[in-house]
Amino acid sequence: MKEVKKIGFRILCFSGLLAGGFLLLCTWGILDPAQWGEEGESVVLPAVPALGVADQSLFHGPFLYLEDPAQPIPAGTRGVVLSMKSPDGKLGYVSRLPRAMDWGASSGDPARNQAIRAITAREDLHTVALISCLADDRAGQDRDLALLRESGSAWVDPSGQTWLDPAREETLSYLTEICREVAALGFDELVLTDLTCPREGTDLEPLCRAIQEGALDWPCLLSVAAEPGQSDALLATFPGRVWAGEEDLPRLSAFDPVVLPVASSN
Predict the structure, then answer these.
(1) What percent of the chain has a predicted confidence (pLDDT) above 70?
(2) Which domains does the chain have, with CATH numbers?
């Protein structure tokens, strides 16, 4: 059943990329549907793969947020969410990336990955990994990735959070490799959070494209969490689903968003 779901996810990813690219071309004025067929010619749109049973049965929630993959999961739970990269830059798994180890980002628990795989292997659960993209207090200390001020110091927002610069090749490489490692742990879905930049006018498109291109080889769905400052066009480029806080559900109703669970305050 897991294999059937993963095949369905890849079909959904492909159709989502087609739809997102079409919307962007229309948004930028490169394509104008209103002009099609003006000279009496019929226009044949590319066929979009029909959603299979696995796609139609994607679990929408509620999801159980797991602080620790080793904690008990109550009977009857159908969807679980684990943080695999938090805004402080800490990874929720053991990484093999040299930089992640240098920054102390990788989990130090040798049993962590095995506990994660025990969850993602379960047929009765839809497993979701949260990955904080540009908010990162560990990699944000590295000048090769950090969003910098004109003075050359790290850019820090009012809360004290450091951010990564999406225009840097090192940032694209690091985040893509993190996503690849997390996908290999067997999750059904990856959700990119903090995919925004506090510096106005920053172009996120190259970063989104790099991760989306990598995701074509991953056996999971690539989704995105809605953030302030993102455009609907950007959200539409993702092959997976849009996740959002309950307060943003009405604004994003066109995307049929999924409620993004939050960590317990305890």
Answers:
(1) 77
(2) 2-35+43-259 (3.20.20)
